[in-house]
Amino acid sequence: MHEDAETIAPARGLTRAEAEARLARAGPNRLEGGGGPSLWRLLLGQFLSPMIGLLAAACAVAAALGEVADAAAIATIVALNGLMGFFQEYRAERALAALGSLTAPRARVLRDGHLEVIPAAEVVPGDLLSLEAGDLVAADARVVECHGLTTAEAALTGESAPVTKSSDPAAADAPLAERVDRVFMGTSVVDGAGAAEVVATGMKTEFGKIAGLLASARDEATPLQRRLVGVTRSLIAICGGVVVVIAGVGLARGLPGAEVLLTAVSLAVAAIPEGLPAVVTIALSVGVQRMAARKVLIRRLHAAETLGCATVICTDKTGTLTTGVMTLRELWTAEGADERRLVDAAAACCDAELGEEDHPSVGDPTELAILRGAAERGILRATIEGERPRRDERPFDAERKRMSILRADGVLYVKGAIESLLPRCVAGTAGAEAAGDALSERGLRVLAVAIGGGEEEDALTLLGLLGIADPPREEATRAVASARSAGVRTVMITGDHPRTARAIARELGILGEGDEPAGLVHARATPEDKLAIVRAWKERGAIVAMTGDGVNDAPALREAHVGVAMGKTGTEVTREAADVILTEDNFADIVAGVREGRGIFDNIRKSLVYLLSGNTGELVVMLVAGVVGLPLPLLPIQILWVNLVTDGLPALALVMDPADPAVMDAPPRSPDEPILGRVEWRRVALQGLLDASVVLGAFAWMVAADDLPRARALAFAVLVFCQVFRAASARSTTKTFWEVGVATNLRLVAVVVVTVAVQLVVLHVPAIAGFFGLGALGIEGTALALGLGIVPVTVIEVSKRLARLRH
After folding, report:
1. What is the 8-class DSSP label of residue 705?
2. pLDDT tens column, 722-731
3. Measured between alpha carbons, how far is 393 from 391 in angstroms, rounded to an integer?
4. Which residues make Cβ contacts (< 8 Å) with residue 346, sequence separation at least 6?
5. pLDDT per residue as tens digits for the range 386-424
6. N or C: which terminus of the chain carries fewer CB neighbours within 10 A?
7. Hey, which residues are catalytic here?
């Protein structure tokens, strides 16, 4: 009994006066949200990142140069990014609110010797709860009386089967799932009735402890966000260097200061891929849509790419790796019995009812497994009840560990734990104990079935043993193998018994022959254990995806880089804490999400290489021309136009590429790998120099003809054509555009055609050409520009073929 209730007689419960005093001391029986920053502070905090600052500066420069459309577009991107981050943080508060909604709204308690129904918030330590089937338990309480009382605790402990309660004290150090003398806030009563004395309320309950863990779980930047910060810092340094160098060269040549400043700032803006945030957002959005088609719903946009970085998937067992439905998997028959007789006797000793289309199944999951197995063999419970109606029954209880039903045929049908039935059997027991051990070792729940000829549960004849379990999903086994081949470890974390967990892990291939379960299989895991496991993997440098369906999973889901909740069986708390929701609760869908996530990263990387290659080409053209004494090849308005038509639609079309079929053949990317490594920066430099060489050659040749406006028109046209044609080559670093397949990205084909057409209009409509400061290029000049524009992409495609021949 609670320490404050030693003088209170349990039969009468608390007095109203004592209950009020305890409520004042202990506080209301509800979960606290924990405060947190104000909504305005959350919103303003989203605009302090380097990328947002860089974009804001670009917006200001574009506005100062009179590029109102560019400025408006960049401002929109800044606002959208900020709002996205705000909603990501705001959902943490919603997760805590959802946790509170799981607690019982009202409770039946004994006050002054009378049963009363009161708001759950008014329950206090020492109250005596009255519990019946269908009730939500209002607080943590010690069972003082029970009659077949069972509770569903999967959301709290991960234990898949209902737990039978007892008034006998459990061991003080027993795991939460084995504390059969306790009932817990937020769990539900499946069957039976009982009374329990409240020992903890509010934040001191097991649910309350989870709420505290959920509030303390750390949110951190995703790998992609960290990589983009690195790219942003590099771009800031480049922009600063460009302004200084170009300004210095221009002033050294005696050019007007205003012209030098305008050109330098224009190039600085050109060096910033303003389309990058849009590219990232579109890439993630396209990935989200593709994942949704695979029954993977993304709640947090960056989680789509982060899932592709996963090196470890920590997953729950029940319903994710397994079907979530208890199944009769194996039978052992005693000498003289057969399988049909065994299954018939087991079905005759069941109270559950199998459902139909309009009526759900009702009863204990283990009994439903027996009835499904019987139905598969043509044995129906309705037929049994009609032909052999029951005359008497003794329900299951925790002390006897068995139940029996006496039917009209004079047979007593008995089922229960093997250690409970074998001592009462006088026949059929040979080999039963060894068979039971073998079934248990394979992770099966073992039930013994016997029959007798009287009303007493003695002098029985054992018919055999039933092996019942929640079987693995077939597709989960394939998915585990696929994840392993992609270098992604699967770690099972479950509340089930260690023996069951090990058996399922071996069947799925998580554990191989001879493998030790340590590190890969964690059984009887508490919420604290799950959180610690995720943190331990993160400390080892892993990118962790964590799946779960119960409230006990929510803190670990928040802590993981990607939290994955179950859409069918998951609680609202888990879904609110998660980044990803699986609509079919299927582990195979997670692996499909990893594939799409890897494709997202590849698309962002190749789009960024494309963008920066074009910007590098522009910078090299202007810098070299200034150094060697050539006139400026491009005017500021021409630079901004090139940036607009080549940084926008082509890059957005690139991120819509389907994932490479071989993307799961490679190991996961290192969490420390930058979005642009040495290979990518080298590609940026070489492709930029290739563009610049063609443009400068054409410009110098035309300048030599003493026609500067026409030279600028040619340089302008060649630069646009070089960049837009190169978009086709950017789809793959190893395959040519034709090998990748033209039809696999028709958007890109359309973008190239439209961009070329628009550029031709700019070159040949006199009013527009005059606005851009272009001389008349003519048909021959345009044909020359188109021919030169094809040169860089041709060189790149030929180099791919040669590289493959060398290897």
Report:
1. T
2. 999 999 889 8
3. 7
4. 370, 374, 413, 415, 447, 449, 466
5. 999 999 999 887 778 899 999 999 999 999 999 999 999
6. C
7. 316
